[in-house]
Design brief:
Layout lengths: L2 E3 L6 E3 L3 E2 L6 H4 L2 H14 L3 E3 L8 H13 L5 E6 L9 H16 L4 E6 L3 E2 L7 E2 H17 L3 E7 L4 H9 L5 E5 L23 H8 L2 E5 L30 H9 L3 H4 L6 H10 L6 E2 L6 H13 L4 H11 L8
Helix pairs in contact: 2-3, 4-5, 6-7, 10-11
Amino acid sequence: MQLRTFGRSGMQISVLGFGCGAVGGFMVRGDPAEQERTVARALAAGVNYFDTAVQYGDGESENNLGRVLQKLKPAHFFVGTKVRLPASDYRRIADAITASLEGSLARLHLERVDIFHLHNSITATGGGPALSVRQVLDEVVPAFERLRQQGKIRFLGLTAVGETAALNQVIDSRAFDSAQVVYNMLNPSAAEALPQNYPAQDYGRMFDHTKAAGVGVVGIRVLAGGALSGSIERHPIAGPAPEPIGSAMSYDADVERGRRLMPLVREGFAASLTEAATRFALSHPAMGTILVGLATPQQFEDALAAVQKGPLPQAALDRLSALRQAFSGEAR
């Protein structure tokens, strides 16, 4: 398993991380014995980063990951978890962050986590579920720093969803060490300029900002919530289709656009659309580790096999870019 240096943190993290999210649902609603076997398999294959959150199954993902790691006792691994503040806690941000982390540590059976990510969306002025740039920099960051000083977290992270300008402003502040960035074949705008009138949120070449700030990147929504399987069917333990997550405002429209990328498979660049999507995500040098949502152990094996083939060749990236041109001007 290839390791990449994660921003300025100095951590050497496996290019394939182990996503414990609710969209795939494996570490939330999966069979406990299968969870243990699959985590053991991941560790043996060289995976060393595990990503969870209290919101995944109201703590169930953290409970299950903690149980498995406590039993397996791996010698070396990294864990990232998250805090999402409800609007009702905006008057007590520091206390709410501390309470959330304490609960996470208890469920994970850990004394500290390696990365603690802010899970709220970020906008210029905040409101509703979103935090403003000023709330993040003036209240969240000092609370995170106190927890770091107490030895309960190593690095500060954010989930880069919300308004692009606000997100890049926060990244540019260099207050955070990690950013979870949306990057997939339907929306590559964290890395490159989108064609005119392209139907997706433009993330404004966010990788330029993370690189300049020394921020490590966790690639999220690599399969666009499952849409880049090319199928609208979802596994029984998977969560509901998340929207919007790729280019379109609806999951079904993302699936339809994903199917229009199938020439990559027919022309021999990849064995499947999910393989192409996984390898695409690792193709950019800014990427530290990628997360692929899992519903079954086989889906982990598929992700591992794709990663072992390495990034897509330049010819495949060029073909993909040409195929995406056809999306310009379509309704999001």
